[in-house]
Amino acid sequence: METYESIKLWKEQQIQRFSYDSDSLNYFHDQVMGRVLEVTRKKINLTRPPCQYAWFITGSGGRFEQGLVSDQDHGFVYEPSNEQTDWYFKQLGNELADGLHIVGYPYCHGNIMSSNPLWCKSLAEWKRQLQGWLQDGNWDSIRQLQILFDARALEGEAALVRELKSFVYSYIHDHPQLLKRFARNIEHIKNSIGLMGQILVERYGLYEGCIDLKYAAFLPYVNAVRLLAMKEGLFETSTLVRMAKLKKMKDYEQLLQHSEKNFQSLLTYRLSLTDISRYTDTHYLHVQILSKQERKGLKQILKDGKQLHSYVLSHINKGAVYGI
Predict the structure, then answer these.
(1) Domain Protein-PII uridylyltransferase N-terminal: where (predicted)?
(2) Fewer CB within 10 A of the end CB, N or C, for the chain?
(3) What is the CATH number of domain 4-175?
């Protein structure tokens, strides 16, 4: 009988086979997490779901951008809500988070997990929660909505996740100024280029001499492209796929000319980080190991990301409205 421990061993033995390609690696992560879900069901004798549902993952997993080590970001949506279904998914969500942790997906520091009642709800309860977040419009509510838009169904009915996003899009269509609140949530990015044109690295500590790829390199692209995707009503979650869809639109063809290539390079840098003992190791690249040409290329990627981020914020704040 398969266990969390046997899945962990299999994962550790096999994962290097998929480390050459980001898509292959993320398909592998999907497979691992799917097996964890099956073991979880059997462990607590909940093998047959009592209703239609979707188990979705979000964050880098939802965007198909995980490295060799990734934390867990996931939730449940199910329909309908009654005593039986509410109990089922509460039990499943609690055990699932523990199982993923045992297998090697650390608990999410932001508590974006099925064990958190905020991320394990019936469809009707989800819509009430989304309505509250949209009406609040505060920093944390907008952050939660941004996280939702990176969600993709890993098991169950993908249409349920799409319905949640459609609910938000309908609200934004009627309240287009809300896009400006999304813009404010992502306006701050980590400086990556110094006054003398040098790549800014960590000056002290465990990652001295390294650049923080997550916050200095990835997030300017991820956040800017997500915001454009939301403005245009796209349902895709991968940053690369969002870019490809947006580039087909006249307004963004020139803007995103180099973005796909740049972002693919960042994913390649992430895959190069194989000496990993903790989750944060997947975010830091030691600049000195790069050749002069590689440092030049990375510097251009960082500059392009900052320019893209600045343009998108300006575009939204000038009054660009949903779907236009």
Answers:
(1) 26-137
(2) N
(3) 3.30.460.10
